Amino acid sequence: MKPSSIIWTKTDEAPALASASLLPIVRSFLKHAGIDIEEYDISLAGRILANFADFLPDDREMPDYLARLEELVQQPGTNVIKLPNISASVPQLTAAIKELQNKGYPVPDYPEAPQTPEEEKLKQRFSKVLGSAVNPVLREGNADRRAAASVKAFALKNPHKMMKPWPETGSVTQVVHMTEKDFFGSEKSVVQGKACTARIEFHPEAGEAIVLKNRLDLNEDEVLDTSVMNVQALRDFYASQLDVAKGKKALLSLHLKATMMKVSDPIMFGHCVAVFFKDLLDKHPKTLEDLEVNLNNGIADLLEKIERLPEALKNGIIAEIKATFESQPDLAMVDSDKGITNLHRPNNVIIDASMPNIIRDGGKMWNKEGKLQDTIAVIPDRSYATMYQMVIEDCKAHGQFDPATMGNVSNVGLMAKKAEEYGSHDKTFVAPGDGVIKLMDDQNNCIMAQTVETGDIFRMCRTQDEAIRDWVKLGIARARATGAPAVFWLNPERAHDARIIEKVNAYLPLHDTGGLDIHIMTPDEAMQFTLGRVREGKDTISVTGNILRDYLTDLFPILELGTSSRMLSIVPLLKGGGLFETGAGGSAPKHVQQFLEEGHLRWDSLGEYCALVPSLELAAKMDGNAKAALFGRALDHAIGIYLENGKSPSRKVKEIDNRGATFYIALYWAKQLAAQDEDKVVKDIFSPVAKALHENEAAIAEDLLAAQGGKVDIGGYYYPDPAMTDKHMRPSPVFNQIVDRL
Ligand SMILES: NC(=O)C1=CN([C@@H]2O[C@H](COP(=O)(O)OP(=O)(O)OC[C@H]3O[C@@H](n4cnc5c(N)ncnc54)[C@H](OP(=O)(O)O)[C@@H]3O)[C@@H](O)[C@H]2O)C=CC1
Ligand SMILES: O=C(O)CCC(=O)C(=O)O
Ligand SMILES: [Mg+2]
Q1: From what superkingdom does this record's organism come (predicted)?
Q2: Is the shortest distance between the CB of 586 and ligand 1 below 6 Å?
Q3: What crossing angle do the helices spanning 697-706 and 733-741 adopt, rounded to 10°?
Q4: Distance of alpha carbon 437 from alpha carbon 435, whole angstroms
Q5: For the residues of 297-351, what is the DSSP string, one character each?
Q6: Can you tell me the mean pLDDT for 231-255?
Q7: Is 687 annotated as a binding residue?
Q8: What is the ipTM, given to two decimal places?
């Protein structure tokens, strides 16, 4: 048996807190399977420190774990457990920098509006930690996301109670989108012939061309897309929807992905804020410009910066802001108690999590009185807006879904090699003037051209042929393994999808598809087909591009299981090895808030427990490590018992939380290892542990509950103090002793 090694990522917020409790247990247990757990810090704070090591004294340097992982996922045999991490918006980035500086790490400030070449360079360096900077780097494989069979079976037997009924009549909730001049409408797509080096240029109506991006090494057979969002059309659209929301007495809500689409979506967000506050901006252009208000960072930026004004002017503007809130439609709220709206910060409402919640909540969002109300859900680009409207129409016609009977929708997502329907940040540009943006090859041939007006958002995306081939193969493998129909969600009316359809049609015949039920449908048709089956209790596999992968793997788990944290998210790496993502959701900032206020962490680590099972199976397979297989099977059984016994964290203080849940996983895992007879050494080690945990169950549960109820200080938000975190996340001395003695 070779020793095995599993890399466990240290991330941010709730999952990082949960790891402080779970990881010592995993380490102690797996030591006896010959498995070493290496912790790699890829948190936002850790990435800032690693990227600016040259600013730090030697003793405060942080290794660049993300760079190491980037190499490792391209090598066979790598085994990674990846927890959700912050994809930072600018406000999150600046807050993390400030915290590090206050802790004595002399990292530089983020130059939002660079004035010198040095600042421009610094901004470039920071772009490596901004937005979705981790996932696209690690995802060197396509995604297989599904609920483990035991988790789905449990959900059907014990349906979650979060679903609210849809009104039988009268709901005015609807998705609204542009009808022209959006990314969908302008998209062009080609399959690249020979490999070449290309560049992106802006050709103004008059004058010299400007190079926006140089040295793009294009590969043979990759799919290249370009598209443009016309910002005047976008602003006109926003203005019209403000009127619609007001007319229908509905909330206005905006659903974007400003974290992952870190260049385009904050700008689209900022235009919405600007249209909302149009009168104010028209009245005070100079004052707001002098304050360097950046509406891409939300209303919060405006509110913070006007604090610097002389009292009289400031109060005048505050009165006008209040009047704007009264005259415009009501906004959906993020936190009605604190007056935080959908437009306060670009990272507060993220489409993959926000749209499913509307559906779960009977077509409603929270208003400023803290009550649920219908909403006009603004999703400007048409590419995926309409499939959400299909769900809304289905619920209006047939009522809320029933988690006790719903069929399961799993996903095979095209994600490998960045699959840049997403992650296209380094090829997203704001048009510097009226003209044409061209993709040129090294022979000076124009591959694609897009006409732009000043301020328009140009996006270019690349999808590699190798990734598409592997994705088709994985889709077929899942169809074969489950017998469920596999539906490719692709729209022939969309340029990018039309190219992908050609490739799917070329690669399907390379596999044995006999007896399989495989379809290619537009996202709207696929949604209708899938929802029909869901209501009949039948399972369906969605085989999708990267964005639908993201959206659907929150949507269906939230409806079926109550949260996407209960998903298995397996990424078989192209080079062999595996990346096991835990859950499909985010890092739950609300959970940290609750933990700090009342000492209760409601984060459900089921995603982490579940991810460890296939990771152990991989270790068993790769290293011939039979003990890894044994520990994996034991954990799988333990998870079943844990679910049956209802030991998941509650949402309420003074009831079981993440730490209690993790104690029960340890107890049941140890009991399974003690009960088996395959490996005598393991049995002898774990029998006394299981006994001790069992005998001390009441005392440990009491310790863990006693730790709740008061305020908690972990010495920071983005870079908490490890010892303080440890103290709060491991508050039972008896439990710690048993685990640490192992
Ligand atoms: N894979 C990754 O690395 C991902 C990272 N992100 C990042 O996460 C942050 C927040 O994103 P956002 O989309 O708002 O998502 P959240 O993390 O806030 O999740 C939305 C809601 O889902 C529920 N939820 C999610 N995970 C769990 C869990 N493990 N246990 C219990 N409930 C859970 C919570 O609902 P409730 O509070 O009602 O209990 C939560 O508020 C952002 O920084 C984003 O960039 C987002 C998606 C994926
Ligand atoms: O990388 C990110 O920012 C988010 C990823 C995500 O939401 C997902 O993969 O489901
Ligand atoms: Mg997602």
Answers
A1: Bacteria
A2: yes
A3: 120
A4: 7
A5: G-HHHHHHHHTTS-HHHHHHHHHHHHHHHHHSPPBPEEETTTTEETTS-TTTSBH
A6: 98
A7: no
A8: 0.95
User: Residue ranges per domain, the chain?
Assistant: 4-140+573-741, 185-229+429-461, 258-348
Q: How far apart are CA 190 and CA 221, in angstroms?
A: 9
pLDDT bin (cut points 50, 70, 90) of residue 6 is very high
Say if residues 464 and 495 touch (Cβ distance below 8 Å): no
Residue 478: the pLDDT is: 98
User: Does the annotation place 135 within a ligand binding site?
Assistant: yes
DSSP reduced 3-state for 176: strand
What percent of the chain is predicted at pLDDT more than 70? 99
Tokens of 112: 């939002």
Q: Which of 84, 91, 210 is nearest to 591 (CA)?
A: 84
**Residue with the two structure tokens 């007319």:** 247
Structure tokens at 660: 């209690």
- The closest ligand to the CA of 583 turns out to be 1
Contact 258, 350 (CB under 8 A): yes
Q: Which ligand is nearest to the CA of 562?
A: 1
Q: How far apart are CA 516 and CA 509, in angstroms?
A: 12
Q: Which residues sit with their C-beta closer than 6 Å to ligand 2?
A: 87, 132, 135, 259-260, 352, 550, 553, 584
Q: Tell whether the model's pLDDT for residue 634 goes beyond 70.
A: yes
* Residues in CB range of 168: below 8 A, 6 or more apart: 399
- The reported pLDDT for the residue numbered 583 is 87
Q: How far is the CA of 43 from the centre of ligand 3 (A)?
A: 18
DSSP string, 680-726: HHHHHHHHHHHHHHHHTHHHHHHHHHHT-SS----S-SSS--HHHHH
CA of 591, nearest ligand number = 1
Cβ atoms within 10 Å of 276's Cβ, excluding its own: 24
Ligand 1 neighbour 428 (Cβ under 6 A): no
Tokens matching residue 215: 């040295």
d(CA 33, CA 28): 10
Cα 298 to averaged position of ligand 3 atoms, centre (Å):
22
Q: Are 329 and 245 a contacting pair, CB within 8 Å?
A: yes
Nearest atom of ligand 1 to the alpha carbon of 354: 13
Q: Is 407 in the pocket of ligand 1 (CB under 6 A)?
A: no
How many angstroms separate the CA atoms of 263 and 423, rounded? Answer: 10
Residue 92 in this model has a pLDDT that exceeds 90: yes
- The tokens describing 344, both together, are 């306060």
Average confidence (pLDDT) over 483-489: 98
How far is 251 from 366, CA to CA, in rounded Å? 9
Q: How far apart, in Å, are the Cα atoms of 214 and each of 211, 222, 332, 426, 649?
A: 7, 18, 42, 11, 51
Tokens for 576? 């062999």
669 is in an annotated binding site: no
Of how many residues is the chain composed? 742
| Average pLDDT along the chain | 96
Q: Please tell me whether 354 is known to bind a ligand.
A: no
Quickly count: other Cβ atoms within 10 Å of residue 664's Cβ: 21
- In this predicted structure, what is the pLDDT of residue 4? 86
CA 676–ligand 2 middle distance (angstroms): 39
Q: Which atom of ligand 2 is nearest to the CA of 584?
A: 10
74, 244, 349, 352 from 378: Cα distances, Å: 39, 11, 12, 13
State both tokens at 179.
């009808």
Non-local CB neighbours of 741 within 8 Å, separated by 6+ positions: none
pTM confidence score: 0.95
The pLDDT value given to residue 584: 87
Does the pLDDT value for residue 227 go beyond 70?
A: yes
